[in-house]
Amino acid sequence: MSGRREGLVLAAFMFATTAFAQQQVGEPEGYRTDDYQAPVPSRLAGARVLSTAEAEAMWRAHDGVFVDVLPRPPKPKGLPPGTVWRDKPRLNIPGSIWLPDTGYGVLSPATEDYLRRGLARASRGDPSVPLVIYCLADCWMSWNAAKRALSYGYRNVAWFPEGTDGWERASLPFTEAQPEPRPGEER
Fold this sequence. Notes:
Blueprint: H1 3-24, E1 48-49, H2 52-60, E2 65-68, E3 90-92, E4 97-98, H3 109-123, E5 131-134, H4 140-151, E6 157-160, H5 163-169, E7 175-177
Parallel strand pairs: 1-6, 2-4, 2-5, 5-6
Antiparallel strand pairs: 3-7
């Protein structure tokens, strides 16, 4: 089999496996609080679920605000004093805002405030502005954050479960992202 054909067969198998796993995962009543990198449901009550093609169409039409919720990598413990720590660059969908750490099942009051303020800034305070919330494929962080946005009264929430993994598989462009500053942080 040619390399290209093997790649296509592998991609089709991975897509079918992911789709089957999503059909098997039920939508929980609350937020997912552990095992965040695992198969996700195929739906989120109250939200529109986007395929990569649908997310791309919204992005190209500038129809909505794209919100990345991938957590920021933690600084390793035990670094010697004076060691310079640089986060691994995050590549996300161009034009997105990055609100890291806002997809956990339980948020501290400060992180929840950060999410609320970030969504309000991104939507310019309009709860009808389409919000496209994403992370990675099979990542509950985006599901949790989209569910939270609905609970805050946003009426046009779209969940993009394939996230940057689906975006990359479609050979779509990326840009290096910086997290939205938290209160007291500078950009």
